[in-house]
Amino acid sequence: MRPAQLLTDAGRGVLIGTAEIIPGVSGGTVALIVGVYETALESAGHLVRGVVRGVLDPLRGRGTAAARSHLAQVRWTVMVPLLVGMIAAVLVASALLAPVIEDHPVQARAVFAGLILASLIVPARMVGGRWRPHEVVAALGAAAAAVALTSLPTAGDAEPSLILVALAAAFAICALVLPGVSGSFLLLTVGMYAPTLDAVNERNLAYLGAFALGAVIGLSLFISGLQWLLRHRRRMTLAIMTGLMAGSLRALWPWQTDSGALQPPSGDLSTVLLLFLGGIAVVTALIAVDAAVQRRRVAPSRD
């Protein structure tokens, strides 16, 4: 492969990795914008199935032919530079964001809330057409459940157990499958966003190992299921996702205690409002770019 193409794919990985670190900005959406979403999703599916079959099939006496077949279908020339770019971006972005979140929690939550609020339009619009009554009811139920879950008191500064880390990673990694949903946001709502950034910056191998294991398990269990739901129950799946994202905004109210209890607004309200609007503007711009890219792809087929 030409060096220019390798650098291009690595650059795409940098953009996706940076998006995954920022709550509310979906790495899946960015992958769509830069044109590698379908390739990455298909390759990830083959990679996961290849690894699983490579472990299980020999134990069942079936050999490794199926595993090798799946691994051969992975677009390695795209995936390797993409992953290198993503990992580099995660390391750099984590180092930059962690101190900001620790020193300016109110302002950080304001930006994140704006990012998430604007992101709601992505899964809501992907439902397609006018929402049906049962889809509205499902979304409202999902929103209510998310509000209830994010209203539970957090554990404060206690370090999460490695089992909890793996479980959170298993669910957060699934956000990569669905454009419009942010994995970092899912970590944020369960109080594990800051600990994960700290683990990356401090090279906490035990934490990162548990996170990686959970991510692999999550992909193994959920990637095929989510792909099936998007193919066969697309509207309802996206409606529920929209509701979950909307209800989880409760966790991003800027003013709250360390345990997650909401407080009335205080301090420099104008700055908080500007940051909130700035978050909305960032995602709105990304959505506009995505729409322009999609129009350009559709236009040639109509000629």
Written overview of the protein:
The protein has a domain at 92-302. It has 14 helices and no strands. Helix 1 (3-21) runs antiparallel to helix 2 and helix 6 (105-119) runs parallel beside helix 14. With 303 residues, the protein is mainly α. Helices cover 75% and strands 0% of the residues. The chain has helices at residues 3-21, 27-33, 37-59, 65-72, 76-103, 105-119, 121-126, 133-150, 162-172, 183-189, 193-202, 205-232, 234-247, 269-302. It is globular and about 65 Å long.
SSE layout:
Blueprint: H1 3-21, H2 27-33, H3 37-59, H4 65-72, H5 76-103, H6 105-119, H7 121-126, H8 133-150, H9 162-172, H10 183-189, H11 193-202, H12 205-232, H13 234-247, H14 269-302
Question: Can you tag this structure with a few keywords?
Answer:
303 residues, 0% strand, globular, transmembrane helix
Structural class by sheet pairing and helices = mainly alpha
Order of helices and strands: HHHHHHHHHHHHHH
Radius of gyration: 20 Å
Tell me the overall shape: globular
Helix content: over 70%
Query: Unreliable runs, pLDDT <50, ≥5 residues?
Result: none
Number of helices: 14
Mean pLDDT: 82
Can you summarize the main beta sheet?
Answer: none
- How many extended strands? 0
Strand content: under 5%
N- to C-terminal separation?
32 Å
